[in-house]
């Protein structure tokens, strides 16, 4: 099934869910200053906000920063609205909690789909671990910081005074809400393109970090998932004087050598061999 078909089916189910129980958008209350610009100004995109934004500027400014024009800007306004702001206005204006719920589900599908396609040889457990690292609160908060999302939020006075624009939990929720708004306004493909700008880069860092932290465990998970065997480590050379020993280790599956490593301790040599094997292994299963 293609990604487009997956997106259409998922969109149909989640749109019905999102628009139930009173609808997502407040009807008839969008002010003129919240309307989308006719063109997204590339000169204003990707630049951090250098002064506090007025409420009437937030939606338009974020569209410019994202280089994305919403068909319905009230969706983006809703995505930026913290519940604390509702205490200060006398209008039917929803918070971003419903869009956060939707965006969480959309991000889960996008991330799972991406991992499934990129790593065809790893098992469910490893994909689950990778997905968890990609969608945890701290990671999403960093995604939000990358686009200075906190500067665009509608916050109540108390939240503003307590550094609400920098709080990781609030930033993570806002990022998911913006993703949900993009999904409803522009569809699955646009939301996927937006999310993968962050997810693909983060995945590279997660994988690299995990390899250096515990390459032997990662290799074992990969090999067991793909080959239903356990890798073994074999000392193949030991040289040098007692005060400066050098150890060479091979990691094997059966008689097949997956990688080699050399260091001044057996444990370090095993880690190096495992790192070497992972590079070869991932290259072979994703080719």
Overview of this structure, please?
The protein is mainly α and 287 residues long. It folds into 2 domains: 3-206, Orthogonal Bundle (Ribonuclease iii, N-terminal Endonuclease Domain, Chain A), CATH 1.10.1520.10; 231-286, 2-Layer Sandwich (Double Stranded RNA Binding Domain). It contains 10 helices and 3 strands; from the N terminus they run αααααααααβββα. The protein has a 3-stranded antiparallel sheet, with helices on one face. The chain is elongated, with a radius of gyration of 24 Å.
Concise summary:
The protein is mainly α and 287 residues long. Helix content is 56%, strand content 8%. The chain has two domains: 3-206, Ribonuclease III domain (Ribonuclease iii, N-terminal Endonuclease Domain, Chain A, Orthogonal Bundle), CATH 1.10.1520.10; 231-286, Double Stranded RNA Binding Domain, CATH 3.30.160.20.
Q: Please tally the β strands and state the result.
A: 3
Output the radius of gyration: 24 Å
Query: Any idea of the CATH topology of the largest domain?
Result: Ribonuclease iii, N-terminal Endonuclease Domain, Chain A
Q: Mean pLDDT, as a whole number?
A: 79
Number of contiguous helices:
10
In percent, how much strand structure appears in the residues?
A: 5-15%
Tally of domains: 2
Low-confidence stretches: 1-7, 13-51
The arrangement of helices and strands along the chain is: HHHHHHHHHEEEH
Label the overall shape. elongated
Helical fraction? 55-70%
Q: Can you list the strand order of the major beta sheet? A: 1-2-3
For the record, what CATH class of the largest domain applies? Mainly Alpha
The CATH architecture category of the largest domain equals: Orthogonal Bundle
CATH superfamily of the largest domain: Ribonuclease III domain
